[in-house]
Amino acid sequence: MGVPAGRYPARVTVPPRPEIRISDADRERAAARLHTALGEGRITVAELEERLAVVYAARYASDLVPPLADLPGEPLDVMQPTALSTPVGPPMVLRTGMGSLRRTGRWVVPARLRVHSTMGAVLLDFTDAELTHPVIEVELELGAGSARLLVPDGATADVDGLVAGMGTVRSKVPAAARRGAPHFRVYGRAGMGSVTVRQRYRLGGLAF
Questions:
Q1: Which of 141, 151, 168, 174 is most buried (CB neighbours < 10 A)?
Q2: Per residue in 68-100, pLDDT tens?
């Protein structure tokens, strides 16, 4: 039995959607992966320069496949919204010798912080601070002192770049960045002191 004429509309052929162009942030994320590969000894300086030329000339996501194809991870991971770009520009430098160093309450947090402490205790409380950047880099250079970083609820922190000598490093928040949540990259060296990254504890009406 035939289908009555006009019962169904004629088939329409939809042309494929053109590939979306990538942004400068996507190129920077790809470049950061290449720099990481150089630091891990996976590629040489000459290969880095050659691949960076391809990355910065890329217009589409597919253009980023060749320079990243033989490195760990999926080449197109640079397009994921959770891959946050690295902050640029000079850091704010905070120093202390044997005394304590504290940043609490309402303060404007820069994209990059560099903290030097010989023996003093460091407290960086970001919970009530003004965070104007999605990613905050904190570089720690600690001697015998300890450091506490209190981050807002929902924040994430990557501490893999922090090397401890005789001290300890503990993070009580997720490491993977999440879209819309502040992300902290904590790196550097801790000699004999401990480093702790956590949210504020709440007991009754107190927060500490």
A1: 151
A2: 888 876 555 554 444 455 566 788 999 998 889
